[in-house]
Each structure stands twice: as structure tokens, then as C-alpha cells.
Amino acid sequence: MSTAYIVDAIRTPTGKKKGSLAGMHPADLGAHVISAIVARGGFDPAAVDDVVWGCVDAIGPQAGNIGRSCWLAAGLPESVPGVTIDRQCGSSQQAIHFAAQGVMSGTQDLVLAGGVQNMNAIPISGAMYAGQAYGFETPFSTSPAWNVRYGAEEVNQIYAAEKIAERWDISREDMERFALESNERAEAAIDSGRFDREIVAIGDFAKDETVRRGSNLERMATLPPVREGGRITAGVSSQIADGAAAVLIASDAAVKDHGLKPRARIHHLTVRGDSPIMMLTAPIPATRHALERTGLKLSDIDLVEINEAFASVALAWAKELGADLSKVNVNGGAIALGHPLGATGAKLMTTLLHELERTGGRYGLQTMCEGGGLANVTIIERL
Q1: CB neighbours of 47 closer than 8 A, spacing ≥ 6?
Q2: Is 202 helix (H, G, I), strand (E, B) or coil?
Q3: Digit-coded pLDDT (tens) for 146-168
Q4: Is 55 a catalytic residue?
Q5: In DSSP terms, which residues pair with 241 in a beta bridge?
Q6: Among residues 32, 55, 89, 354, which one is catalytic?
Q7: At what angle are helices 157-167 and 311-321 packed, to 10 degrees?
Q8: Rounded to the nearest 5 degrees, what angle is found at the Cα of 104, between the Cα atoms of 100 and 108?
Q9: Which residues in the chain come in under a pLDDT of 70?
Q10: Which residue in 32, 70, 267, 369 is the catalytic one?
Q11: Would the pTM of this model clear 0.90, i.e. be above it?
Q12: Which residues form the Thiolase N-terminal domain (predicted)?
């Protein structure tokens, strides 16, 4: 089996709700990182075997195979194909998996993975299905077979986040302390320039604009819960955001043929499922599975990026697995830095790679909850 190497990983700065990227077409947003990663690599773009791109609920300007559109909007060869992946929030992490699997299988040598999401252009509802904003019902509500299996129980990410907080006995105060630390870590990372190497500026827009500067526990305590009587507030939730990210995956042959320098290798790939009603718990069994398959312990992992869809998700994962939170989301997470759905998987991988290089760590683990009760886990080894 061929080794799959990460050659490069970059991202845009993340735009906030009604922020700097709100008016940018998703194809142009994705084209920006694609153009940059090709230019940085110095290889013939016609050598790319495929563009595997993540995007959630690709409708409106994100429809029509946005992965292909991003490549073409970048002015690159028409001979290179593209495909768009929707594994909900894990879409671009799954894109990385498919790219790596293509290389590991020996059927491809150079694959560009990544994702894009303009959440300002395509609103996502509380149940996280964009079609609801256009008058469609949830994908489940009209399925007789679904209703036979799961009944009328609510399928909603806020509901799931609340149920997780209840099951793992995570208080609102616990979540607010976690969210505050996410903001403080992100502020420190931005102000010290830790993200500068991984971000490709768009004009004068060069730094993430999502951080809630000036956050404090007193202010967070005044926020109303999203659901009456609940624990989840906007302050402990990921933010609506826009962005794109790209990761270049190469085989041994491509590294040699194109004079590329690998920065990490893909050590392990996992995707697992859990209850679609609890929806956000799958990172727990997925991480367990990945560690069992690799023979690693969580203590062997130098850095973890787990998507902060909600504070309860990350805290339940940490509590269940006994994780050391000093190694988790060390530069802040989606509560502070935003969650541009289809781009987040590649965005987190980009940050994980650069932080491993900055700190000299060996192993990095990335995981995230995904709609439908799914989770990907990727373990990389820095070279």
C-alpha cells in the first residue's frame, strides 16, 4: 500500500456573520485557496488526478458540483475532474480521507482535497439543513420508514447538544468556562501570528474575524438559552462563518516526480456512526476505534483538533476518553474561530499540521461530529 503524504495545507481567514466574505461567491472563495496551493507547490496542475471537495447542502451558488466549479474558477486545466462530498460537517475531512485512500490504493498520485462554505449566502437552520430556509421540510419528516424506526423524536443539533450536556452532566457553567478558554486561546494565537503561515489573505483580509474579544463569564451568563430551560446558548456554540481550505495529498511517486516535500503522512483514517438522534456523539466511538486500530493511546497523541460544534460535544468526548484538555484545540476552536461547515474539516487539518510543526509534535488527531450521527477521525504523523 502506498503512503499518502500531506504536502501542503492552507486556508482563508474565516469570515464572520455578515462579515468580510459574506458577498464572495463560493466558487471564487474555493478558487482562492486552490490557486494558492498550486502556486506554492510549483507543480503542473494538469498532473492533479482529482479535486475532492467538501460542501454541506450544496444548493444555490454552491450547487452544480462546487468542487469542480472552484477548480475552473481558478483558471486551471479543464482536464482535471472534481467531485463534491457532503458528509455534513465532516465533508472536507472526508474529502481528505477519499484523497488519501485514492493515493494509498495506488490508483491516484496527486489529489487536491478541501472544502468551501459561504453560510451567509446559504443559511443553515437550527436543524442544520439548508433546504428548510427555502421552505422544504426536514429530510426525515416525510419518510415513513424513518418514522417507523425513530418515531417522532426530534432530529435537531441543538436538541442533541442539550441531550449530551444532560447525559454527561455538563453544566452551563462548565460549557461557558470552556468557551471562554476557546476565545482566549484563539485571541492569543491570532495576536501572536500563529495562524499567519496557514492563512492565504484575500486582499486586505488576512486574519480570522470571528473571535468574540472581550468575552467574560459574567457576560456569557446573561445570554438566553437557545431552547427554553436549556443549557446551550450562542456563547457555547460554533459560529456561522465563511471560508475555504485546501490540502494537497501525494504519493511517493508524485513527491519524486514533482519535487515535492512531504510535511506529514496519513497514519490512520476512520469513520464511524452513532445515534442520529443524539447526532453529535460519534467522535467518542470513532476515536476509540482509531486508537484500537493503531495501537496508540490518547496520551501518545501530541495535539488534538476536535470541532467545537457545541461545548458539550468536546467536553463529553474529553470526559469519556480522559483527554488532557491542554492538548486539545490549543489555538481555540469553532466557538471562537467559526465553523464554515463544508470547509471545517480541511481547516482543522491545516491548523493541526502547522501547530505540530510549530511545537515539534509527532502525532496529531482530528475528529468532528457530523449530522446523522457520524464522525471522522484522522491521525497524521509529522515528518
Answers
A1: 109, 110, 254, 257, 258
A2: strand
A3: 889 998 788 889 999 999 999 99
A4: no
A5: 16
A6: 89
A7: 40
A8: 80
A9: 125-138, 141
A10: 369
A11: yes
A12: 5-252
